[in-house]
Design the sequence.
């Protein structure tokens, strides 16, 4: 009789263990589905899954374009008016561009560019040219002048005007 009681209790333990495992799996699935549903309804999507719009965007890479330089061998020299006295300004400069065609165009039209720059330098205020801000402003006006000449000729623009030497006296 004792041998018959032992096998009947073992199946009861297996069925409780299966029931507990099944409940844990159901609870975990319910939690997982609620998290996924919440993320989906909020519009963020699932982590690691991109939307179709992100995949269709083109990736635009900026390419580095090295600058090229052209030196103006002769200095720009002109007189500058300062409170009734005549002063002199001498500027050695270079042009910077990322497009080599702009520098070739600047060399081609250098007589016109040089004339415009001498006029611009001669119309500058002597006291303004003695300050770093004044020289920076002159460089910006010279850049605009050079690019205006190049634009009138249908050429690409230069990037910057650089002073190699700047003397006012």
Sequence:
């Amino acid at each position: 009789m004792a041998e018959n009681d032992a096998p009947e209790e073992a199946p009861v333990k297996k069925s409780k263990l299966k029931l507990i495992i099944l409940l844990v799996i159901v609870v975990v699935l319910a939690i997982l589905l609620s998290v996924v549903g919440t993320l989906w309804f909020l519009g963020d999507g699932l982590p690691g899954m991109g939307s179709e719009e992100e995949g269709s965007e083109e990736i635009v890479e900026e390419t580095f374009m090295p600058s090229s330089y052209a030196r103006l061998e002769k200095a720009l020299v002109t007189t500058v008016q300062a409170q009734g006295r005549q002063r002199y300004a001498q500027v050695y400069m270079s042009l910077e561009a990322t497009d080599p065609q702009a520098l070739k165009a600047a060399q081609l039209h250098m007589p016109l560019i040089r004339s415009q720059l001498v006029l611009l330098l001669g119309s500058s205020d002597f006291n303004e040219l003695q300050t770093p801000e004044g020289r920076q402003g002159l460089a910006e006006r010279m850049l605009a002048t050079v690019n205006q000449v190049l634009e009138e000729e249908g050429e690409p623009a230069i990037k910057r005007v650089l002073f190699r030497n700047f003397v006012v006296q």
Residues 68-168 form one domain. The mean pLDDT is 84.
